[in-house]
Amino acid sequence: MRSLFFFCLCVTVSGNENGFDYIEDSYRKYANKNTDPCDNFYRHACPLGSPDGLLFEVFSNFFKEKLEKLPNLLNQYSIAFDFREIEKLNGPIKQLADLYQDLCEKEGNTSLLLEQLEPYFSQFPNTCNGQACLLYIQKDPDCQRGADNLRGTIRRFPKIHESYSKFSKAFRKFLTVIKVLYVHVEENVQNGLQQTKYLLAEIKEIVHDWIKSTPWAINNNVEDATIAAISPTIIQENYTDTWRSSIEELGELDISYKECKSRYNNFEKANVLCFFLVAMKYNDLAPSEFFTETETFISHPYIGLSFENYYIAQHSQNMASKIGYVGFTIGHELSHILIKSTVGDYLTYFSKAAKVCIQNQFNSTCEEFKEESCVTGDHQLDDNGADILGAQLAYYVLERHFGDDLMEIHKSLGIPQQQLFFYAIAYMFCDVSIVSRFYDQKYCLQGNAGKTSINHDGTLDEHSADYTRVNAVMSQLPGFQKAFECSEDSRMITSATEQCDIYGKNAPENKRH
Ligand SMILES: [Zn+2]
């Protein structure tokens, strides 16, 4: 596996063909070269004054600029074009009744409208004949009165409104996913994508060996069960097929929408009705979750890598940057399966000593570098552990690839190239705001600089604050001290607690009694 990945890297090591190098650019622009990385690495790499949410800012601008330059694909679909106005309206009730009134006053065809609405707004849609359900309304010559009656009837069906809102939300997301996929396709990040697959394969191979030599796993006979939990993991990466099927699906919705519009002679006021009918017909619309700008997550067995991972794998010039960023991301996601924090997790057994070790490190880092608040909750164990183990796995990959060249000086930056590994991790988490920006975070690798976010329901977010995540991870990597030649009394080293070898031959014993 190693040789396969190595081959892949050899052909792409030049990187940066018509792209930018996110890691090196960020280092050049934002790392404060006047501060000691061994003092507070996070604030050395991401000083106050650097952009808030650097990763998000860089890549959302990148998407915006790309989409501005590309022909506007969505405008070719009437349903997508019209949706810009439809979504501003507060539900379909008023518009459907207004449409009735309009058609009625212009002596248009109200029968068609009422017949189309009947299946959704009748008490007995299967048994009534049209006259008895909604069609009786048109017998009233007063169009305003008829419209009011229809409005009242429509209001009585909250489930239909819920279903409409659900579809609207899904459709909005569907259009966003299509735009994101469009950029994947136009940027052609296949090369970067291949590298992420090789990285996952290599990390899985390493994990496999580590599990096999882990004393607590051996002593409790859970090596095979643990390996079986990670074996099926794959990256959900087929953006080309997802792109094709999404466009096809949009085309199908558009045909249905346009057919309806043509029955009303493309009368603009029929837009909401036609969108409503599409919503009822395709209420199972479920856009892919796996393709995003900067939001990575795992939904076992699939890892959804966000776009910037493919981009960084493809355009970063130095291997240390790629392994630091993408290797850590994949390592983190895979590690979610390998840390057991609740009974519902995948593992059947996990080391208690490893849990304590992980939380001790986060506590220590949090106390030492405290910004706005410091919290190490039990519910954060999973993510804290995934950070530590993910970084250990990525660093092991780095060592395998660089061998004795880890301290070789980077030609243009003048620093040991392996330092880019550590900067790459920091540039995933650069934030300066002390106010939560991401509520109810479901994604692993976004956070807040100075404090743990509070979710809408008042619970603390499962991710530790960014300053804690980055500095705790660095303190747990012996390679960090070497790469930056940190003295024993520097804060990054004194805040390091005992080495947390969660898996591998140095992991705790945990004999079962
Ligand atoms: Zn996570």
From TrEMBL:
Residue ranges constituting the Peptidase M13 C-terminal domain according to the UniProt record: 308-500
GO biological process: protein processing
Keyword Signal: yes
InterPro entries for the chain: MetalloPept_cat_dom_sf, Peptidase_M13, Peptidase_M13_C
MF terms (GO), sorted A to Z: metalloendopeptidase activity
Keywords: Signal
Any Gene Ontology CC annotation: plasma membrane
Pfam entry (one): Peptidase_M13
Secretion signal span: 1-15
Record-given protein name: Peptidase_M13 domain-containing protein
